[in-house]
Every structure is written in C-alpha cells, then in structure tokens.
Amino acid sequence: MAWVRDQIDAVKSIQIRQLLIQAVSLGMIVTSALIIWKALMCFTGSESPVVVVLSGSMEPGFKRGDILFLHMSKDPIRAGEIVVFNVDGREIPIVHRVIKVHERKDTGEVDVLTKGDNNYGDDRLLYAHGQQWLQRHHIMGRAVGFLPYVGWVTIIMTEKPMIKYLLIGALGLLVITSKD
Asked: Which of the following is catalytic: 46, 66, 96, 111?
C-alpha cells in the first residue's frame, strides 16, 4: 500500500513540475514579447512602433487592417508625410497625411495640419476643442512601412471580444495540454 501511495505522490510531483514548467514557459514568451516591444520603441524612437489602420480615411493608400511601422526622428515633419498622432481627449491614435506645416515665429517650433486622403476636409474637427494645429508632442511617429491586412486580427478581436476570449482560452488550453 505504501508503494502505491509513493507512486501517486511521484505522479503528482511530476504533474506539478510540468505545470510549473508550462507556467515559466508562458511567462518567458510574454516577457520576450515585451522585451521585443521595448527594443522596438528604443530603435524607432516612437512610443508605439506598430499601429493598425482602423478606418478607411487613408484609402486607397492604406486600407483598414493594414499594419504601419512607425519611426520618429528629430528631422522636421514635412507636408506629404503620413503621421500617426494622438489628440487630447481621445484614446485611439489617428493615421493621416500632413497637408500644411506652420512654423511659429516666436519659438521656431513647427506645427502641422493633417487630413485623411479619403476625407473631404482637414482634421481640425478631430483636434481638441479650439486646437488648430498639432504640435510635436501629439505626433507618435511617421509611417515608414506597412503590411497589408495583417491588422485584421486585432480589429476582429477588438470588435468581437468573444473571439478574443475563445482564442485566449484555446492558447491557454494548448499550453496546459502540451507535452515537452
């Protein structure tokens, strides 16, 4: 009887060890992703080196679901560049083209006016109340490349949270049931 109990204890010990190994593996995957993200932030100089186009305002150049790669440099922003910016009071960044550049005579700082390629008017209605121009601190980065349609995964998971929960559950089940 003691031999059976020892065998049961040994199996439980192995199961606990496997569970700990799986938890550590999952933690390493998450940590690796965060390290890669932080490294991209340092390399690109942008607080968000990758963004997903969420609307059709930049069509035909960029379509909904395209992923943009951003870079932020000290070079002055020029008309014609595509930038991603945040507006005070809004959480979601916007991807639009710079249509005008305005240099302030008193400080020498450059302000910009943007517009979506597929929109009729400029973005002043999108800016915070009373704001006429975007300052440098609003700009998250300049588009330097893109992958078409890859961002649809993010859009679907945002618009249909049940799919996100199913995917997370399936990945969790896969981690728990995988054997090394």
From this structure: 96
